[in-house]
Amino acid sequence: MRWAAGAWLLSALAVTACAPPAPSAVPAGPPAGFPAAFYRQAIVAGNTVYRIEPGLSRVVIRVHRAGPLAAFGHEHVVASRDLHGYALLARSPGADRADLYLPLTSLEVDAPALRKSAGLGAALSPTDVLATRDHMLHPVLEADRYPYAEAHIAGLAAKRGHRERLRITFTLHGRRRSYDVPVQMDWNNRRLHVSGRITILQTSFAIRPYAVLGGALRVADELQLAFEVSGVRQTGVAGAKADLHLRKTISPQRR
Length: 255
Description:
Radius of gyration: 19 Å
Distance between the termini: 45 Å
Strand content: 35-45%
Order of helices and strands: EEHEEEEEEHHEEEEEEH
Structural class: alpha+beta
């Protein structure tokens, strides 16, 4: 057996694995209470609303090893492009906001290209990668119970092309924590783009970093998260069709 360390956005973990992991269920639609109707009404009222494009957006988390035996573990990179939501640039001052969510089962662990770009060396074996992801989602993140990472942002107004700070409230593992996050923000009549970085602690969300041998080999509490969020403006028929598609993805029990 081989030790590995890994996690996500919200968690991480070091793992020993011999058996293939059980498949993870994909949650149906957005989280309960996601304010799709609010953004639909904002479009009708003539406000500027952008729908977040999953294929063009990305969240990347760098996971570090720790402990006296850290040299025997691995550092990891976890990422997802399955980011959804809306951003509103309102007509009324102070009414700008955004709501986003990411299904935790969309997280990808140690993709070779990401490991290479992060300077983490050779790719890990498929068995180690699958086992690390399984332990990350279940014992650590408890994704069956808490299937989403969510973000609410208030006060989006910023100078185009300048670094500003956004107040972002993350919901993960049943806990909410707010941060002032420096971002680069730009937009026009068609597109919105926001990028930034933040460091969070797993323990802030009541997540226990994975550890073995009494903590001699463990995942560091600190996670480094980088994000790029791209949105397309929703107007008229296009906006209505996008919202209709979103509502169709919501399972009956979540409506």
